[in-house]
Amino acid sequence: MTKAQSNEEVPRRELRRDAADNRERVLAAAAAAVRREGAAVPMATVAADAGVGVGTVYRHFPSREALLGALTHRSFQLVLDAASQAAETDRPGIEAVRGFLDRTIEHGPELVLPLHGGPLLIDQDTLAIQAEVHRKLGSLLHRGRRDGTIRPDVRTADLVVFGALLAQRLPHITDWNQSARRLVDIHLAGMAPMMQPKSPRS
């Protein structure tokens, strides 16, 4: 590469980085706007919240459907990251599940999922991520059954639904994270194997 070519490459990299930053800014603003106003939120509102022109939004996402699809894909990727981090630990199954749920609470404001009123999944890449989320969570439950910390009738779908509920903050609760973690304690207590009652002495 000549010096002139190298000098030309620097601005190109900066432009690509700026475009990536703008795209992420739009997605973050869109996630908050959709959770606040619903899936019909105007694209102009998303642009204003992101601090960019509406043309920038349409340059990255040519339609509302494209934007909502990207939000759903991004949300499932965040959930997969949380599930993967939990699966990589050597903690007992029930505590690995707690780690996943804690990260779900932290990511809550960024998540737009079908269970939150987001678009139904049709994109094959997003469906593949969703399937991997289920596989990772299933492995956590299997670990818990094997080490005796999770009862055998808990299903992956139970964990998915509860995680989605935790990510949907209730507006009238001021400290949602604290309240959500209390719900996690209660839920995990219910996931633990039930103690067998002692036989009465004769």
Automatic annotation (TrEMBL):
Question: A Pfam family for this UniProt protein?
Answer: TetR_C_43
Q: Mind listing the GO molecular function terms for this protein?
A: DNA-binding transcription factor activity; transcription cis-regulatory region binding
Q: By its UniProt entry, which InterPro entries does this protein fall under?
A: Homeodomain-like_sf (IPR009057), HTH-type_TetR-like_transc_reg (IPR050109), HTH_TetR (IPR001647), Tet_transcr_reg_TetR-rel_C_sf (IPR036271), TetR_SbtR-like_C (IPR049445)
| Keyword annotations of the record | DNA-binding, Transcription, Transcription regulation
DNA-binding listed as a keyword:
yes
As annotated, the DNA-binding region falls at 42-61
**Gene3D superfamilies xref list:** Tetracycline Repressor, domain 2
Look up keyword Transcription regulation and say if it applies. Answer: yes
All copies of domain HTH tetR-type, residue ranges: 20-79
Q: Which residues form a coiled coil?
A: none
Which protein, by its recorded name, is this?
AcrR family transcriptional regulator
The species is Kitasatospora kifunensis (Streptomyces kifunensis)
